[in-house]
Amino acid sequence: MATDRSGQHLWIVGGGIAGMAAAAFAIRDAKVPGPHIHILEELGLTGGSMDGAGSPTAPEAYVTRGGRMFEEKAYQCVWDLFGTIPSLDDPKTSVRQEMLDFNERVRTDARARLIGADHTVLDASDYGFSVRDRVEMSRLISTPEALLGSRRIDEIFGEHFFTTNFWRCWRTTFAFQKWHSAAEMRRYCLRFLHVFEKLHNLSDVRRSVYNQYDSMIVPLQRWLVAQGVDVRFATRVTDVDLTDNGAAGRRVTGLHLETADGTEHLRLGPEEYALITIGSITADARYGGADTVPPLVRDRSDHGWSLWERIAPKAPDFGRPTAFCGNVDEHKWESFTLTMHGDTLLKRITDYSGNEPGTGALMTWIDSGWHLSVVVPAQPHFPDMPPDTYTLWGYGFEIDNKGDYVPKRMSEATGREILTELVRQLGFDDILDEVLATTEITTVMMPYASALFACRAPGDRPKVVPDRSRNFAFLGQFTELPEDIVFTVEYSVHGAMHAIYTLLGVNRRIPPIYHGVFDPKAAFAATKALVG
């Protein structure tokens, strides 16, 4: 007998992918009426960190703060969701099927994954493990997470490991630094063991047709709106009322809102639920242009962390946000997007790298002062791009170091200077003037881009559905999902699925977490890659 959902309402705090996925699962699997689902979003658009838009610094330019890679075996909750969402260009084709078809036509094969100081393409498939490196990797994988605790990666591995091509590929594929959480790296190793042998060319990577905002967020938003979901923009939740009735459980009984009309107190009834997104890796992001430098904001002025900071003291199991947002210098990134009016640079990169056009192959200059990487996506990367306009996206991992051709820190460089450094790292000095004249560049400084990799202790992240919760859950990248890996769309969607299925009693199996170590073929391939 179907559960009567006619009196139930869901209040979802945050319109990022986690909140949107929660709304979709509530409608599709729990049969909650769309108009009974309310998404409260402080900004003027949905999508959260999965953005892609026009540049705020140049009227004819585009910007993506980051890019996302997907993979067949490890993204089961994502495929479950987007297998039922119509795609942007063809309502008869799901987003999932569109991506399958696209990646059948355009296969990732990074032929210039690592580049040396003299512009030479290196053999990235030669991982360079020593016997000690192999022993330490095996020890990391076999050590229970509870025993690793809050140890750093560089407390597990010796210095040689960080000079291997494996680490160079791993670091820039997944965004790890050696001071990040060893426990999280272990989870990644277990989750992606099957890609070890292909890490040098990323041939297991799957990408979307356009940027992920247009290819995934826009179709999902359209579907939710068509179901009647109530999306309220410019609505900030500043606090949550919580009651603890002991054995009878804990409930969220109210939300405190700020809107354009002032403050409001929303009382939750006995059949109402609250799903609360906590933390943000793109909070306090700031932009720069060709002749400006994006400032680094340290005071958490954008409210991306303030709700969690307000909630955390209400219960000891609600996590510790300062474990993740308390050290900006360990987690800041700077990315940049080029909008090129003409294909001179793209053609030269294609000829130089040997990569097929539009395969989204990642390239990293391992000896560059800023540790630069770029990705050239399939074009057009935005559905509304005019003819003869192209984009690529890149980032730096060592932004406080001086460049090799621009003698200043990346964090102090203008967009024009970053573009100059990139072109000269490529060895394309002969086209530098043309590229500077025909390219618009947007830079982005993100103080918390890798905060989710911070070394953590048990309890630093709250459970998605806390113990004794009767009507609330936490969403996003800073919740605790045992064995799953952060910094993936999968983590947000998995958490949303877990929240809805648990709170609303959905009798449907959540896709299991894939571990390559239990797949004989994957384990053999990984062992072969480690042994060399």
Helices, strands, pairings?
Blueprint: E1 9-13, H1 17-28, E2 37-40, E3 53-54, E4 62-63, H2 76-82, H3 95-105, E5 114-115, H4 131-142, H5 145-148, H6 165-174, H7 182-191, H8 212-226, E6 230-232, E7 236-244, E8 250-259, E9 262-267, E10 272-277, E11 286-288, H9 306-311, H10 322-325, H11 328-331, E12 333-341, H12 344-353, E13 362-365, E14 372-375, E15 389-396, H13 415-426, H14 432-438, E16 439-446, E17 472-475, H15 489-503, H16 520-531
Parallel strand pairs: 1-2, 1-10, 2-6, 5-13, 10-17
Antiparallel strand pairs: 3-4, 7-8, 8-9, 11-16, 12-15, 12-16, 13-14, 14-15
Short description:
The chain is of the alpha/beta class and 532 residues long.
Shape: globular
Global mean pLDDT: 94
- The radius of gyration computed from the alpha-carbon positions, rounded to a whole number of angstroms, is 23 Å
Adjacency order of strands in the biggest sheet: 5-13-14-15-12-16-11
Q: How many individual helices?
A: 16
End-to-end distance: 57 Å
The chain-level structural class is alpha/beta
Binned strand content: 15-25%
